[in-house]
From TrEMBL, chain B:
Residues 5-244 form the ABC transporter domain. GO terms for molecular function: ATP binding; ATP hydrolysis activity. The keyword S-adenosyl-L-methionine does not apply. GO terms for cellular component: plasma membrane. It comes from Candidatus Nomurabacteria bacterium RIFCSPHIGHO2_02_FULL_42_19. It comes from the Bacteria. Keywords: ATP-binding, Nucleotide-binding, Transport. This is ABC transporter domain-containing protein.
Automatic annotation (TrEMBL), chain C:
It is found in: Cell membrane. GO terms for biological process: amino acid transport. It comes from the Bacteria. GO terms for cellular component: plasma membrane. GO terms for molecular function: transmembrane transporter activity. Keywords: Amino-acid transport, Cell membrane, Membrane, Transmembrane, Transmembrane helix, Transport. Its main location: membrane. This is Branched-chain amino acid ABC transporter permease. The chain crosses the membrane at residues 6-28, 35-53, 59-82, 94-121, 141-162, 190-208, 267-285. InterPro entries: ABC_transp_permease, BCAA_transport_permease. Belongs to the binding-protein-dependent transport system permease family. LivHM subfamily. It comes from Candidatus Nomurabacteria bacterium RIFCSPHIGHO2_02_FULL_42_19.
Length: 288, 244, 287
């Protein structure tokens, strides 16, 4: 039972990340690989504030999105002039710089040792230290994020994002300042991703730089494309499938390291096959 | 009649070649101005410059007498101008209805975040789709439409924008006669409403039928202008076309 | 003599990057997207050399040529079965980039499963990689040989590219593959040859890296990224721009190591990338 709770918690965390990634990459068509960086910023903000300053994780659920949002705002403004491939390269650059900073800034991030002993969330006399209680918390956050994503995709704002993905130049002619829209969705996506990071940090109580690499962003790509890009349901479905299916490897008794690599290999091949044979994913409606 | 749109010595060059070469033209309010010339004479480039699709390299553009130094496309709504595209540019993977809705909803991103399309928006969009015969297709993706329907949807977006100045870049190209008739009627109706229209077109019958004023371009320069019947008999114009 | 030592290190890093960027340039200019599968060929070259030379104990020179052949084949086949298929379907760059990232991820994890995630060292005995004293500075034998061999290769490729008929054909295809096809150049065949050559050049980079300090599955992406940065820095359409870019990056990286410490070396390319994209997106040499 505890195992099922564990998997469901992971699905919730990745569901949040996939929804955020989908908002930026699926709805607005901004090809970004910086998903893992904002996830990491959330996790590190929570970890540092909780271990060094004794903040409650609930407080960091508010603070982390603000930190991630401000960083995304700065990054988004400086990257505003890049499009398509170059936007991808710039976000890749940002992710690598984030990773290097985390590995090297030992006083703050613990360098390659990471940060251990991150407390579980507690509120009044209630502590979320059992898998079940943490699951409840993770699901609450997930539902808030789902709500926000549906709120956006059903608003006029969401329709404009889709039009930017389809033909930004044409949309501009009709009086839209598309750069502001892109900046806003980038910031919102970063803020939502950071929530996933906070949950992860307090759930596994130990984080280091290896958790937030390019591979993690590739996994997010695979999730939203497998599920069906530009669909909130697709992102959730992708997270569900790509967390549960590789768990099967565990039952074949592969050692942890090999299982990790196999999972990575599955994600990579999956992307190649989806691009070749089904760019629309399972819930296929849009394609890249 | 007043000049609602005016260019003075307008220049646009691509790699040393002047696509628009010191061009000075006037567009008068409430008229349909035809814009003709051989392929590569700079008609589409001019439309692109006027709509902010690309930036001009020199000269100036006046909107209602005031110079607009840097033409940024998102200000088009303020300056009351819109256009269609010769190479159709629809939002292919969005429904026909959404293609229209996106034109009539909120521009400000913060307000747009809290706006849902209302019954009012829908009925407005449906009215426009009825005008361009696309009401039955409203839930189809724009990418699935036939060529003629796509052209009509482009017209529909222009109707939705409802601006004073409309630039049509070859709206009739490659269409069947009945659709041509349909679009001609729409353009005439727009003129009745007092819109100012610039029309790029190759078919001289359509030009004669619709235009009040004609501008002939060749190699980025103004070759001739005036009343269509008069201009089309001028020797330089005939030579530019026949020499092609 | 510290400065001389730094110059030697810069020279080594510069030629290694030049080697990689020449091969990557061929691919980038012909298919017009940042094909990170190139980093996979780097890995394949290094690990095949380990397999042939150290595991199967084939002698040095044949092992190198076998590895180069396989890394060339790897990139050629990836193009034939994935990328050319997508390009023919008029897929946009998003699709191509995502597929190439997926392919690199799959390649490096498969190699990791076979050879392990730890650094794999190709040399049979560590004493084989002895140090040489060069006018007071030191380089090991791999670095010194690499500098000589790659300088020769740069000259050969520059000659082929600018002076021979084959080079003219390549430039025609790079310039506008459709026009080239109209004048009777077999576009598909040239693409295949370029992918094979590019893969072999990447493989050579992997072999040198594996002999010098060892190779890990992650180094495919880690080496790919500076190479992308260099091609943006040098202007993606220019042969010499790439080589100049390679040396600029090498200088910036080694000076960073001197002033800030080795752990910041990996961040240098990205800082440069973002500066270049912001200030001069067309690169140093405009074509």
């Amino acid at each position: 039972m505890e195992y099922i709770f564990h998997i469901t918690i992971l699905i919730s965390i990745y569901g949040i990340l996939a929804l955020a990634q989908n908002l930026v990459m699926g709805s607005a068509g901004l090809l970004t690989i910086a998903g893992a960086a904002f996830y990491g910023i959330g996790a590190y903000t929570a970890a540092i504030l909780a271990t060094a300053f004794g903040f409650n994780i609930f407080t960091t659920l508010i603070i982390a999105p603000i930190v991630a949002g401000l960083i995304a705002l700065g990054i988004g403004i400086s990257f505003a002039r890049f499009r398509d491939d170059y936007f991808l390269l710039a976000t890749l650059g940002f992710l690598m710089i984030f990773n290097t900073v985390v590995r090297n800034w030992e006083n703050v991030t613990g360098g390659s040792f990471g940060i251990a002993g991150i407390p579980k969330p507690h509120i009044f006399s209630l502590t979320f230290d059992t898998p079940f209680s943490f699951l409840v918390l993770a699901l609450i956050v997930l539902f808030i994020v789902i709500g926000i994503c549906y709120f956006i995709s059903r608003s006029s704002f969401g329709r404009v994002l889709n039009a930017i993905r389809e033909d930004e130049d044409a949309l501009k002619i009709f009086g839209y300042k598309t750069s502001t829209y892109k900046l806003m969705v980038f910031v919102i996506g970063a803020m939502l991703s950071s929530l996933g990071g906070v949950l992860l940090a307090s759930y596994i109580t130990f984080i280091d730089a290896n958790l937030f690499t390019v591979n993690e962003s590739i996994l997010l790509w695979a999730m939203i494309i497998l599920g069906g890009i530009a669909k909130n349901r697709g992102a959730l479905l992708g997270a569900l499938l790509l967390i549960t299916i590789p768990e099967a490897l565990r039952f074949f008794g592969f050692p942890n390291e090999i299982a990790g690599l196999m999972r990575q290999c599955i994600y990579g091949l999956l992307l190649v096959f989806l691009m070749l044979y089904r760019p629309k994913g399972i819930l296929g409606q849009y394609k890249l | 009649m007043k000049n609602i749109l005016e260019t003075k010595e307008l220049i646009k060059s691509f790699g040393g070649v002047h696509a628009v070469d010191h061009l000075s033209v006037n567009i008068q309010e409430g008229q349909i101005t035809g814009l003709v010339g051989p392929n590569g004479s700079g008609k589409t480039t001019l439309i692109n410059l006027l709509s902010g699709f690309s930036l001009h390299d020199g000269g100036s553009v006046f909107f209602g007498g005031a110079e607009r130094k840097k033409i940024t496309p998102w200000e088009n709504q303020i300056y009351n101008i819109t256009r269609t595209f010769q190479q159709i540019k629809l939002f292919d993977q969005m429904s026909v209805l959404d293609n229209i809705l996106v034109i009539i909803t909120e521009r400000n991103p913060f307000l747009a975040l809290f706006e849902r399309h209302s019954k009012y928006h829908i009925s407005q969009a449906e009215d426009i789709l009825k005008q361009v015969d696309l009401f039955e297709k409203r839930f189809h993706n724009a990418g699935e439409l036939s060529y003629g329907q796509k052209k009509l949807l482009e017209i529909g977006r222009v109707l939705a924008m409802d601006t004073k100045i409309i630039l049509f870049d070859e709206p009739f190209a490659g269409l069947f006669p009945e659709i041509i008739k349909k679009i001609e009627n729409i353009i005439k109706a727009l003129k009745q409403e007092g819109k100012t229209i610039v029309l790029v077109e190759h078919n001289m019958n359509i030009i004669r039928n619709l235009c009040d004023h004609l501008i002939v371009m060749d190699a980025g320069k103004l070759l001739a202008e005036g009343h269509p019947e008069k201009v089309l008999t001028e020797r330089v114009v005939l030579e530019a076309y026949l020499g092609e | 003599m510290i400065t001389w030592q730094i110059i030697l290190y810069i020279l080594y890093a510069g030629v290694l990057y030049s080697l990689l960027v020449i091969g990557f340039g061929f691919i980038l200019r012909s298919v017009k997207f940042f094909n990170v599968a190139y980093g996979g060929a780097f890995l394949v070259g290094g690990y095949m050399m380990f397999l042939f030379y150290r595991v199967l104990v084939i002698s040095f020179i044949p092992a190198i040529f076998l590895s180069l052949f396989i890394s060339g084949l790897y990139l050629f086949l990836s193009h034939k079965f994935i990328f050319s298929f997508l390009i023919n379907r008029k897929a946009n760059n998003f699709v191509l980039l995502i597929a190439s990232f997926g392919f690199l991820t799959a390649t490096s994890s498969v190699l990791g499963m076979i050879f392990g995630s730890q650094a794999t060292i190709i040399a049979r005995r560590l004493s084989d990689i002895h140090s040489l004293n060069i006018f007071g500075g030191t380089l090991n034998i791999v670095e010194a040989l690499a500098i000589i061999i790659i300088f020769t290769l740069i000259c050969i490729f520059a000659f082929i590219y600018f002076k021979t008929h084959f080079g003219r054909v390549i430039r025609a295809v790079e310039d506008d593959s459709e026009v080239a096809e109209l004048v009777g150049i077999p576009k598909g065949k040239i693409f295949s040859q370029l992918f094979f050559i590019g893969g072999a050049l990447a493989g050579l980079g992997g072999i040198i890296q594996g002999l010098n300090v060892g190779i890990v599955p992650a180094s495919g992406l880690l080496f790919m990224l500076p190479v992308i940065v260099i091609s943006v820095l040098g202007g993606i359409r220019s042969f010499w721009g790439g080589i100049i870019g390679a040396f600029i990056l090498a200088i910036a990286q080694k000076l960073t190591v001197v002033f800030f410490g080795g752990s910041w070396e990996q961040a240098v390319p990205f800082v440069i990338l973002i500066i270049v994209l912001l200030v001069r997106p067309e690169g140093i040499l405009k074509k």
